[in-house]
Specification:
Helix content is about 75%, strand content about 0%. It has about 260 residues and is mostly helical. The chain has two domains: about 1-130, Tetratricopeptide repeat domain (Serine Threonine Protein Phosphatase 5, Tetratricopeptide repeat); about 155-255, no CATH class.
C-alpha cells in the first residue's frame, strides 16, 4: 500500500492501523506503538476531525496500556474520547470503547472512584443501546468486576459477574439472585471447595471469553478455582491450573500488590 498508494492514502492508513492492532493482540505492543504514532501524526495533518483519528488514538492508548503506561495512556485516550464525543456523540460505540479504556487507565493508577464512575456510565449506555448480551456490554461488566476485585471488594464484583455468566449461557432455570449469592460465597475467604469449585470454574470460563488474554481477574479466578481443586486432594488436576494462573499474573500489568 505504501508503494502503490502512498503513506497518506486512506487504505494505507487503515492497513497500518490494522497491522498495529494485530501486533498488540500478538503481545508485540513494542512494535505497534511507533506504527500507531505514525498513523496518528499522518491523520492529524490530513483531517484532525476525522472520526478514524479518534479510533487510532484509542488504539495507541490501548497499546500503551499493554505496557502498563497508565498515565501516558490516560492522556492519549482522553483525547480520543473528546474527539469521538464531539464528532460521533457520547452514545457512539467508538466513544464508549474509548471510555472503557480510559476507565482502565484510571484503574491502573488506583484512582478507584473516577474509574468506577466511568465504568458505570459506560455500562448503563451499553445496556440501553446494545443490550445485556452484546460483547462490549459483557466486557464492561468484566472490567467493572475487576475494579472491585482489585480492591478486595468481592461481594461487589459478584453483583456483576453472574450477569456476564448468564449472558453467555442463558438458563431460565437459574436465578440471577441465587447465582450472585453463590458466587459471592465462592469468592470469599476459604469457601467450601466442593461447592465453590463449579461456580468459580464457570466464572473463569466466562471471563476467558471476554477479557484480554492474560488479564489479572481471569488469572485470579482461575487460581481460586485451582485452589478449590487442590483442597479436595486433586493435586495433579490443580497443578496446571495454578501454574498457568501464576504465569499469567507474573506477566500481567496493573496487578494489585
Amino acid at each position: 500500500m505504501h508503494a502503490a498508494l502512498g503513506p497518506d492514502a486512506e487504505k494505507t492508513l487503515e492497513i497500518d492501523n490494522d497491522l498495529a492492532v494485530a501486533l498488540v493482540t500478538a503481545n508485540r505492543a513494542d512494535k505497534a506503538v511507533p506504527i500507531l504514532q505514525s498513523v496518528v501524526e499522518r491523520r492529524r495533518l490530513i483531517n484532525p476531525r476525522n472520526p478514524e483519528l479518534a479510533s487510532n488514538l484509542g488504539n495507541l492508548g490501548g497499546a500503551q496500556l499493554a505496557f502498563g503506561r497508565f498515565k501516558e495512556a490516560e492522556s492519549i485516550i482522553s483525547e480520543s474520547v473528546a474527539l469521538s464525543t464531539d464528532v460521533l456523540g457520547i452514545d457512539n460505540g467508538r466513544t464508549l470503547a474509548s471510555l472503557n479504556l480510559l476507565s482502565y487507565a484510571l484503574e491502573g493508577q488506583e484512582r478507584w472512584t473516577e474509574a468506577e464512575t466511568k465504568y458505570l456510565a459506560v455500562l448503563a449506555d451499553r445496556r440501553r443501546v446494545r443490550g445485556p448480551t452484546h460483547y462490549e456490554t459483557q466486557r464492561t461488566l468484566a472490567f467493572l468486576s475487576r475494579l472491585y476485585a482489585k480492591q478486595r471488594r468481592w461481594p461487589d464484583a459478584a453483583r456483576y459477574l453472574p450477569e456476564l455468566m448468564l449472558a453467555q449461557k442463558p438458563n431460565p432455570g437459574r436465578s440471577l439472585t441465587t447465582l450472585t449469592t453463590a458466587l459471592s460465597t465462592a469468592s470469599g475467604e476459604q469457601p467450601d471447595p466442593a461447592t465453590a469449585a463449579p461456580i468459580l470454574s464457570e466464572c473463569w470460563r466466562a471471563l476467558e471469553e471476554r477479557m484480554w488474554k492474560g488479564d489479572w481477574l481471569t488469572a485470579e479466578v482461575a487460581s481460586r478455582y485451582g485452589d478449590c481443586i487442590r483442597r479436595q486432594g486433586d493435586y495433579e488436576g490443580a497443578k496446571p491450573i495454578l501454574e498457568a494462573a501464576a504465569n499469567d499474573v507474573a506477566k500481567a500489568v496493573g496487578v494489585p500488590a
